[in-house]
Amino acid sequence: MTRRHGPRGDESAGLLITGAGGFVGSRVVRCAGRLPDGRPPLRVLAHRRTVPEALGAVEVVAGDLGDPASLRGLCAGVGTVVHCASLVGGTEEECEAVNVRGTEALVEEARRAKVARIVYLSTASVYGRGTFREARPQDLVRDPGSPTSRTRAAAEDLVLAAGGTVLRPHIVYGTGDRWVGPGLLALARAIGGGLRGRPALVSAVDVDDLARLVLGAALAPADRMTASVYHANHPRPTTADVLLRGFAGVAGLPFAEGASTYEQAAERLRALGRPTNPLDMMATDHWFASDRIWSDLGLAPGVAFEEGLARHAGWYRSTMRFK
Q1: Is 39 a domain residue?
Q2: pLDDT per residue as tens digits for the range 244-266
């Protein structure tokens, strides 16, 4: 069923998911669709992408965060909003329109409908550059450095001001990934292997495990949620070398341990006309302590990176054209 807006009289505490056709949002929709009988009525907001099929009684609403008028009435009959939609990689103006003004309109609709809970899927990139070792949200100051991360930080503020919950994953990988796998493969190919010295510790999460966390945060009893901002990764970090070696292996590329120093790797990237930002993320710790969310939700942590990547390796090989 697809509609524009307006309540359905039989909904009293429905679950709304935005970004239902996206990388993470589509997984959250699938998780919600697998809930046992008695789950809340499910409504999903879809823009351009196809919403996962075969989910049973799901109400699909056409709407656009960049067009606040299209959201009118969206939250009628909804008890919980899971906001997974964000524009990644647009201009400042485009990101402002979707991530800030769109979230503002969504939060206003939630207020109007007296929604009980809003969960926003953000990103650890709101912290900007730096070294992060077992870092917890309450100990960090946001310093976003791109239009995407600046506007997502502003969206966080809107959700938090409304009493909502914010989840910040770092590296998210898995079937449907169009950013992490290609980026790490390109880096591994350019520098020829791992970096010399102590391997940087890096937080990562399988997209399916992240979906479990998002939905868990949406449906958990209020007294289980002990924080308003959570890091949302596997609680045990991996290392930069394991990440690079993993994607090189998926692509069938050779991987040399300790192939170069940071300076040598940076010089190779500059010679290829590429930025060094991805290298910086692999050269220093980006470990965001994420044990609290698993504990609060009473969920068992999912798989570590190497096992998780093995699950998705076939998709990466067939889709990303690692040749």
Answers
A1: yes
A2: 999 999 988 888 888 889 999 99
Residue 137 belongs to a domain with what CATH number?
3.40.50.720
What is the extent of the structural domain holding 25? 2-168
pLDDT digits (tens, 9 = 90+) for 233-243: 999 999 999 99
Q: What is the pLDDT of residues 14-33, one digit of tens each?
A: 999 999 989 999 999 999 98
Does any domain span residue 270? no
Q: State how many domains the chain has.
A: 1
Question: Which string of b and e fits 60-80 if b means at least 16 CB within 10 Å?
Answer: bbebbbbebebbbbbbbbbbb
Task: Dig out the tokens for 219 from the structure.
Answer: 């449906």
User: Taking a C-beta distance cutoff of 8 angstroms, is the pair 248, 194 a contact?
Assistant: no
Residue 224 lies in a domain: no
Helix (H) / strand (E) containing 43: strand 42-46
CA distances (Å), 170 to each of 68, 135, 163, 207, 253, in order? 29, 12, 23, 11, 25
Whether 37 maps to a domain, the answer reads yes
Distances from the Cα of 309 to the Cαs of 208, 229, 242, in angstroms? 12, 27, 11
